[in-house]
Amino acid sequence: MKNKLLFLGPPGAGKGTQASIICSNLQLMHLSTGELLRAEVVGDTDIGKQVALIMNKGELVSDEIVLSIVRKKLVNANQAGWLLDGFPRNLLQAKALQTLLDELSQPIQAVVSIEIKDEILIERLISRGRTDDTEEVIRNRLKVYREQTSPLIDFYDQLGMLKAVFGEGDIEDVALRIRKVIE
Ligand code: AP5
Ligand code: MG
Predict the structure, then answer these.
(1) Which domains does the chain possess?
(2) Is the beta carbon of 126 within 6 A of some atom in ligand 1?
(3) 128 lines ligand 1 (CB under 6 A)
(4) Model pLDDT for residues 60-93, shown as the tens digit of each residue
(5) Are 124 and 168 in contact (CB under 8 A)?
(6) Is the CB of 137 under 6 A from ligand 1?
(7) Prediction pTM value
(8) Which of 77, 75, 63, 3 is nearest to 33 (CA)?
């Protein structure tokens, strides 16, 4: 089973849900930049103070902050593998990640792109109710995804790493589809 994974997909696609399942089954480090940033906000740290407003608008936090968080986690990783969830979010982050993973000699083994219709993800997010799950902010997160993150689908496809997975239906069914593409 592949154990150096990256999950791509729009907000509400199920990246976090599916990443938790795989990481507990395969004992991988689950590296979610959204979760790490929310922990900074809750802890009211310097970084938390800088990012809270940006996150509540659904904009991207600066590459510099995100890259320093990810670098620290990957350099100090003590598990056999990892799963990146919600990172990278733009081409600059993707290229910086390639450089870092080259340094660490730990290439990505599969990029799973979770595909889902807008209506379904909007429904899912509104019923979850995180502070950035209001209709207005969700629409902005989707716009940011389309403009800045979705070009990564082609980027990883050209590197021969991309596995597209249909993200609608029961959580267990999606988990099985993902398992098949990371075998
Ligand atoms: P982040 O936390 O990454 O949020 P996101 O990408 O908008 O995605 P979500 O976490 O909302 O969705 P998900 O795909 O994980 O779905 P989930 O499993 O939760 O980022 C938040 C913010 O942080 C960004 O806007 C930005 O400001 C900042 N940020 C983060 N990373 C950054 C980076 N690299 N660079 C710059 N800024 C960054 O599922 C959603 C809901 O649906 C849940 O309630 C779940 O229970 C439910 N659900 C899941 N699967 C199913 C299913 N199959 N059927 C029914 N319900 C389901
Ligand atoms: Mg998430």
Answers:
(1) 4-182 (3.40.50.300)
(2) no
(3) yes
(4) 999 999 999 999 999 999 888 999 999 999 999 9
(5) no
(6) no
(7) 0.97
(8) 63
